[in-house]
Amino acid sequence: MAVELLTLLFNGLAYGVLLFLMAIGLSVTMGMMNFVNLAHGAFAMLGGYLGISLTTRAGVPFLAALPLVFVAVGAVGAGIEVTLYRRFYRSPQLTHVLFTIGLTFMAVAGATYVWGSQIAAMRVPDWLIGQTMFLGLQVGSYRLFLLLVGGAIALALVFGLERTRFGAMVRATVDNRRMAQSLGIDVGRVFSLTFALGSGLAGLGGALAVNFLGGIQPAFPLGYLLVYFLIVVTVGGLGSTLGALAAALLLGLADAAAKFYAPVIASFAIYLVMVVLLMWRPHGILGRR
Amino acid sequence: MIRRAAFATASVLALGLSLVGARADSPPIRIGFIVDLSGEFADYGTEILNAAKLYLAQHGGAIAGRKIEIDAKDTGGPNPEVAKRLAQELIVNDKVDLLAGFTLTPEALAVAPLATEAKKPMVIMNAATSIVTEKSPYIVRFSFTLGEIASVLAKWAAENGIKKVYTLVSDYGPGVNAEGAFKKYFTLAGGTIAGSDRSPLKGPEFAPFMQRVKDAKPDALFVFVPSGDQGVAVTKAYQDSGLAGAGIKMIATGDITDEAVIDQLGDAAVGLVTAFHYSDTHPSEANKEYVKAFQAAYGSKLRPDFMSVGGYDGMHGIYDALVRLNGNADPDQALEILRREKFESPRGPFWVDPDTRDAVNTVYIRKVERQGGRLVNTEFKAYPDTKDPDKTK
Amino acid sequence: MESIAPGAGFERRSRLRAGEVLLWLAIAAAPLYVPGHLVLASQILITALFALSLDLLLGYGGMISLGHAAYFGTGAYTAGLLAQHGWSEPISGLVAAMLVAAALGFAASFVIVRLSGVALLMVTLGLGLLLFELANALADITGGSDGLQGVEIAPLLGLFGFDMVGRTGFVYAYLVALGAFALVRRIVHSPFGLSLQGYRENPARMAQIGAPMAARLRLVNTISAGLAGLAGGLLAQTTQFVGLDALGFERSAEVVIILILGGGGRLYGGLVGALVFMIGRDVLSEANPEYWYFWLGLILVLVVLFMPQGILGGGAALLVRLRGRAALGEAAR
Description:
The complex is a heterotrimer.
Chain A: H1 2-32, H2 40-57, H3 62-83, H4 93-115, E1 131-134, E2 137-140, H5 141-163, H6 165-175, H7 177-182, H8 187-213, H9 224-236, H10 241-261, H11 266-280
Antiparallel strand pairs in A: 1-2
Helix pairs in contact in A: 1-5, 1-8, 1-9, 1-10, 2-3, 2-4, 2-8, 3-8, 5-6, 6-8, 9-10, 10-11
Chain B: H1 2-21, E1 29-35, H2 42-59, E2 62-63, E3 66-74, H3 80-92, E4 98-101, H4 105-118, E5 122-124, E6 139-141, H5 146-159, E7 164-170, H6 173-188, E8 192-199, H7 207-216, E9 220-224, H8 229-240, E10 249-253, H9 262-265, E11 273-276, H10 285-298, H11 306-324, H12 331-338, E12 342-345, E13 348-353, E14 358-371, E15 374-386
Parallel strand pairs in B: 1-3, 1-4, 4-5, 5-6, 7-8, 7-9, 9-10, 10-11
Antiparallel strand pairs in B: 2-3, 11-14, 12-13, 13-14, 14-15
Helix pairs in contact in B: 1-2, 2-11, 3-4, 5-6, 11-12
Chain C: H1 6-14, H2 18-28, H3 30-33, H4 38-60, H5 69-84, H6 90-112, H7 117-137, H8 139-142, H9 167-189, H10 191-201, H11 203-208, H12 213-239, H13 249-262, H14 269-287, H15 292-306, H16 310-323
C-alpha cells in the first residue's frame, strides 16, 4: 500500500517536474519580462530537434548535448530579441500574441522543411532507460534524472534571480524601466540577456522533454503543450520561479491522482485544477500584487 | 532535401510517361485528394499522397490518351468543415472524377454526403473507424478498420495462453472501436478482461495507468494509441514501470510500431507483439519491389508504412478501374469495379468486400525484432481474409 | 475626441457611411465574381460573425477570452443536434443555437466578471477545454471525435434547399451576418456600448462614476456568447456536420488572431481579419500545401511590424496621413 502510494507520488512529481522544465523558460520571458511569448514552444522545439541532431547525428553524448542546446537556443533567442522582440516591449499584449503566433507559424514550417514531418525521438544513454532502485522504490530512471535536473535548475534560478546582482537588475528593469535606466543599468542588455536565458531554458526543457513525450514533430509548438505551459506559468504566478515549480508539481500530482483513482475524469483534471486555483488566487499561487 | 529531390525525379518521370501516352485534345482524368499535409497529422497525409503518386509514376500517368492528374488539397486538420469545402470545390470547380485520400475519420464523414449527392466514388486510404463506409454508397475503403485488427489480436491472445487482459486505449472513436472489438472477441474465446481504461487523447503521461495495470495482475496489457509520439510514450511508460518484470506482456495494434516511428522506440520495443495488416518486411516479391521503389523515390531513410500502403492500394484500385473502363470515368461503373477489387498488394492478398465496400485484409501477428541497424515487424502468423467483424451492411 | 461637443462626435460616428453600404453590396455580389467559391465565402462570413462576437467582448469591452469556441461549439451542437433529432427547420434551429449559447454565456459571466487580465484569459481557456472534454466524453450524444452525423437541414423557408454549390448557404449566411453586424453597430454606438468602451479604457474610472459595470459586463458576455452561438449554428447548418473542433482551443485562438489581425475595437476588424486570414490560408495552402504556415506567419509578423493596430488600424492611420486630418483617425470605428 505504502509502496503503491509512494510510486504514484514519485510519478506525479516527475511529470510535474517535466512540466516545470518545459514551462520555466516561459516563466522568464512572459512572467518576468511581461511579454506574452507564445513562441515559447518554438524555442522548446528547436531545443528538442537540436538535442536529437547532436546526439544521433553528431554523436555528442547526451549529457554534453544539454548545455550545448541551452547555449545555442539562448543565442538564437538573443538574436531574435535584438532584431524583433525589442520593438514590441511597449506594445499592447495582443500585439505580442499576433507577433509570436506569426513567428510560431514560421517555425512550424521551417521545422518541416529542415527535419521533415515525421516524429523524431531522442536516443538517451542506457543508464537512463528502464528502472532504478531509489530509496527502496523501483522507479523509472529517466524520471529520477528529470527530478534531479529540475531541482537543480529551480535552485539555480531562485538563487540566481533573487540573490545576485544580475537578478536584482532584471527585477529592477522589469518593475521600472526608466528608473533602472537612470540608475545606470544597461536596460537593453539586461533584457537581451534575460530573454536569452528564457529561450535557452525553453530549449533545454524541450531537449529534456523529448524522451518523455515520445518524440517531437513540427506541429509541436501549436499543440496542447502550449496550453500546459501557460497553465504552469499563470497558476504559479507570473514571474515566480518557485510558484511555477509549485504549480507544475501540483498539476503533475493532480494528473497522476486522477488517472490512478478516477481515470474517467483524467482528461478534465488539469483544467479543473487550473480553473479552481485561478478563481481562488487570480494572481497565481505565489503571484505578487 | 533528399525527399524533395527524389520526389521531383518521380514527378518528372510521371510527367514524361504521361506525355508519351497523352494526346493534346483529350481532357485529363482528375482525382481530388483530400489529405492532411500540414499540422499534427501532416505525416499521415504525406505518406498517403507520396505512395499514390508513386503508383502513378510506376504505371504511366495516362489511360487511353487521357492524362491522370492528382489534385491534392490540404485540410491541416482535423478540420471537417474545410474538408467538406475542399471536396465541394473539387467537385464543382475542378470537375474531379473521383475523390480520394481521407486521413482522418471526421473529415471523411463530413464529405460523405457530398459524394452521394455528386455521385463521385470516394476512395478511403486511411480513415479507419468502422462506420465510415456506411455513410455513403459511393465510399470504398482500401485501408483497414481497427475492429479487424483488434479482433484478430484477441483471438491470437486467447489461443496462446493469455487468459486475463487489461485494455488501455486512447479516448476517442478509433480507441473505442479497438477496445470494443478486443473485449468482445477475447471474452468469446474464453478470456477474461481484468480492467479497461481510456487515456486522454492528449498528453504523454501513462505511468499512473501502468500502475493500475500492475495492480490488476493480468497476463497481458492490450494497447491502442494513435501512431506517433503517444505510441513511443506508452511503450516507454510500460518499460519504465517494470510491467515486463511483473510478467505482464504488452500486446498492441500495429499503430504503435508503425514503420514511420518504430526506430524511435529503441530497444524498448524488441519482442513487442502487435497485430496489423502491413509490415515493410512482409516477405513477398510485391512488397520488396514496393519498398525499393518507395525508397528510390523518397529517400532510403523513409520507410513506407500502413498509411502509404493505403494510398498505394487505393491508387491501384482507381487505376485498375480506369483501365478497365478504358479511360472513361463513369462514376457508377467505376464504383462497381472498385467494390470488387481483388489484388496482390504489398501487404499481401487484399480485396474489397462487395457488400460492405470495406477492406478485407490478411491480418498478421508480428514481433518487433532488430534486423541490421533497424527495428522491424516480423510476421509470424497470418489470419487471412479478415473482415471487420461487426460490420452489418 | 477633441470635438467640443462630444455628443456630436458620437452621433457623427454612428452615422451610416457610404463605404459600409458599398462593402455589403460588394459582398452580396460575390456570386457574380466568385461563383465557384461560395462555400468559402459563407465560411468567411461565419468566421467574421464569430470574430465580431469576440470584438464586442474584447475589442469594445476589453475582456479577453481564449475560450470563445465554447459558445461557437455550443451553438453548432445545438443546431446540429436539433436537426439530427428531426427538427430540420433552419431558422428556428439557428435561434435555438443562439439562445442556448447565450444562456451558457450568461451562466459563465458570473465567473468571468470577477476576473481580469491573465486570470481571465486562462479561466476562459480552461472552461473552453472542459467543455471540449465533456463533448468528447459524451460521445453517445455528440458523436465524440467522429463528429455529429446525420445533420439534415430542410429548405430555407421551405423553398430554398441547401445546394452543393452553396448558393442558399451563402445567402443565408449573408443575411444573418448582415443582421448581426447591424445589431452590433447599434449596440456599440448606444450608451451601453460607450460605457463598455469606457470600461476598456479605464475600469476604475467607470466604477467611480457609478456605472453598474458588473451587470453590463454580464450582459455583453451574454450577447457576445449568443452571437458566437449564432455563428456556430450557421456553420453546423451550412456544413451539415459538427466536429469536436468546433469547440477546440485552436478555434478559440484562431478567432483571437483574426480579430487582432483585422483590428480589434472596430466594427469591421473581424470581417477584414477573416477575409485576409481565410483567403490567405486558402490561396497559400493551395500553392504550397506543406509550407503555407510559413507564409501565413510571415503575413502576421509583417502586419505587426507595419500595422500594429491591425489592418484596419493601419488603413485608418494611412488615411490620416494621406488626408492630413487627425479627425479621421476615428473614421474606421
